[in-house]
Design goal:
Layout lengths: L2 E3 L19 E6 L7 H10 L17 E3 L5 E3 L17 H6 L8 E6 L10 H17 L4 H4 E3 H5 L5 H5 L1 H19 L5
Parallel strand pairs: 1-4, 2-5, 2-6, 3-5
Antiparallel strand pairs: 3-4
Helix pairs in contact: 3-7
Bound molecules: zinc ion.
The site of zinc ion has 4 residues, from loops.
Length: 190
């Protein structure tokens, strides 16, 4: 697994420096920008610092990791800091019960790049994301079968589009994470 550490500059809109005291879940997203590479998604999060705080419409957005089209991973936030990745006016009942009434405060966010408007992911992206998610489950003592969330499962947003449209592919992804998780727990050094 290839993780490049490129932390965002601390700023109100994408790296507010709020503490993430514990992690209860991992939320999977798609960038909704066909063909966009991870470095550019990171650049977008970084650029949010340039917003005029007086503007009418302000964007707050970030995620802890971005997985590129070729499986390269960029980490742009430390794991003990909160990202703005799944905030909303309202949340699904189950998310409020099992996560919190403000799930940003107890989840990690992973953005997945995708080639086209279908939102489908490349095998490289899925493999790297599954390996990353498995590693995080182990690090934070999470059960991969119950701790992975689509953004959709938290707020109802159509994200990641492909996994909302194809629930079977989402279940396959969760199963893949579980496989990597078990391999790690078997003590296989990777
Ligand atoms: Zn999302």
């Amino acid at each position: 697994m290839n993780i490049e550490n490129r932390l965002l500059t601390p700023n109100t809109f994408s790296r507010p420096g709020k503490r993430l005291p514990f992690v209860k879940g991992i939320v999977i997203h798609y960038t909704a920008a066909p063909g966009q590479r991870a470095v550019n998604t990171r650049g977008y999060f970084e650029s949010l610092k340039n917003q005029n705080p007086e503007a009418d419409h302000l964007v707050f957005a970030s995620a802890h990791f971005i997985v590129d089209l070729d499986g390269h991973i960029i980490q742009d936030l430390p794991l003990d800091e909160m990202a703005y990745h799944c905030g909303a006016q309202t949340y699904k009942e189950e998310a409020m019960m099992r996560l919190s009434t403000y799930p940003n405060n107890c989840t990690l966010g992973i953005e997945l790049c995708h080639k086209n408007s279908s939102g489908a992911f490349s095998d490289d992206t899925l493999t790297a994301a599954a390996e990353l998610a498995a590693h995080l489950c182990r690090q934070f003592s999470l059960n991969p079968e119950t701790s992975l969330w689509r953004h959709f499962d938290v707020t109802g947003k159509d994200c990641p589009k492909y996994f909302v449209a194809h629930e079977d592919k989402w279940n396959q992804f969760v199963a893949l994470v579980n496989e990597y998780y078990k391999e790690e727990n078997d003590g296989t050094e990777r």
